[in-house]
Inverse folding.
């Protein structure tokens, strides 16, 4: 199974929410959809937190590089 992308998970989650809001699903199916929705929400939140951490890391690197004297190199 290929790894789920954030965009695919988000679209599936939106479809689940729409379906639950319309009341189309029988009780057992609604419960299964709800559980899948929670799983997708956790996945999306984790991906967003990971992306935020990478952005913060890159910002700190940029700030660190900007504070180096001209002509100096790190690493």
């Amino acid at each position: 199974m290929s790894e789920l992308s954030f965009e695919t998970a988000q679209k599936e989650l939106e479809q689940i929410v729409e379906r639950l809001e319309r009341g189309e699903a029988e009780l057992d199916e609604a419960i299964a959809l709800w559980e899948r929705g929670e799983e997708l929400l956790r996945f999306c939140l984790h991906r967003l937190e990971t992306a935020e951490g990478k952005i913060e890391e890159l910002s700190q690197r940029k700030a660190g590089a900007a504070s180096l004297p001209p002509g100096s190199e790190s690493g």
Summary: The chain has one domain: 6-61. The longest helix spans residues 27-66. The helical segments are 6-22, 27-66.
